[in-house]
Specification:
- The chain has about 270 residues and is α/β, with parallel strands linked by helices.
- The chain has one domain: Rossmann fold (3-Layer(aba) Sandwich), CATH 3.40.50.
- Strand 4 and strand 5 form a beta hairpin.
- The longest helix has 19 residues.
- The N and C termini lie far apart (about 55 Å).
Length: about 270
């Protein structure tokens, strides 16, 4: 197994997000994240599609992790993403009461015996694929709220082409729902990636954030520009539509980022 970001090993109680092109990269990241918990005797919850559940189980077994035993011990809980979503979606949006009523008990089960818990979920990715990004963002908020009451580490994953189709503003919103943004598998992060990523997450959304400094806003704008450019790479037959979307978004960001010019500043 190739090296993965240390955040997957030392997740603490953070909310991570990964962007991926292929199932191979996704499987490797999930196995590193969940396998660490199971090897340590802790608990894990996997909420995934049928194909991914099969891939994850096979990969965990290949790492000498007995998933059947972990399941029997209550340390590993595996749920179908679409079926789980159907339990708390009302009118296409997540219902807070239904979500908490269903997931709280499962988290408590995995945490029995004072175990730490790691959760992998791709329900948000399904909502995004169903052209319902607003519901995905609401669900991210509900996960964050639940984690405040039942501490656990959470890894979400989005296919990069799905988030790309939503545009740069949507991408930035997704990033800001998480405490750690893992670079895309082919993204050349550069030596200052961690500092730039954390600056984005610390300063919040470009819209309505009057407390952020001009430098903070410039960091955010640079981040959006860089990642939009990255998401364009390798995407076929989307050039003009994506460029138009990115241009509109960056123009809106420029209007916020650029400080008003005063006579003194002009001199």
């Amino acid at each position: 197994m190739s090296a993965q970001p240390h955040h997957l090993r030392d997740a603490g109680e953070r909310h991570l997000v990964a962007f991926y092109d292929g199932d191979g990269h996704l499987t490797e990241a999930v196995v590193r994240f969940v396998g660490q918990a199971l090897n340590d005797g802790d608990g894990a919850l996997l909420v995934a599609t049928a194909d991914h559940r099969r891939q994850f189980r096979a990969a965990l077994e290949a790492e000498d992790i007995d998933t059947a035993q972990a399941t029997a011990e209550g340390r590993l809980v595996v749920l179908d993403a679409e079926a789980t979503l159907s339990e708390f979606l009302v009118g296409g949006m997540p219902d807070r009461t239904l979500f908490r009523g269903m997931l709280s008990g499962i988290i408590r089960q995995a945490a029995a015996g004072h175990r730490r818990v790691r959760v992998y979920g791709e329900m948000v990715a399904l909502l995004w694929a169903w052209d319902n990004p607003q519901a995905a963002i609401v669900l991210e908020d509900l996960w964050n709220e639940l984690a405040a009451d039942h501490p656990f580490a959470l890894l979400c994953a989005y296919p990069v082409h799905e988030v790309d189709a939503g545009g740069s503003a949507a991408f930035l919103t997704v990033c800001q729902q998480h405490s750690v943004v893992l670079p895309h598998e082919h993204f050349d992060a550069g030596p200052d990636w961690a500092e730039r990523r954390q600056a984005i997450l610390d300063t919040g959304s470009p819209s309505g954030d009057d407390s952020a400094t001009t430098m903070d806003r410039e960091v955010r704008a640079d981040f959006v520009t860089e990642m939009v450019e990255h998401l364009r790479t390798g995407i076929i037959d989307r050039g003009q539509a994506l460029l138009a979307d990115a241009r509109r978004t960056l123009e809106a960001i420029d209007a916020i980022v650029m400080p008003e010019t005063t006579p003194d500043a002009a001199e």
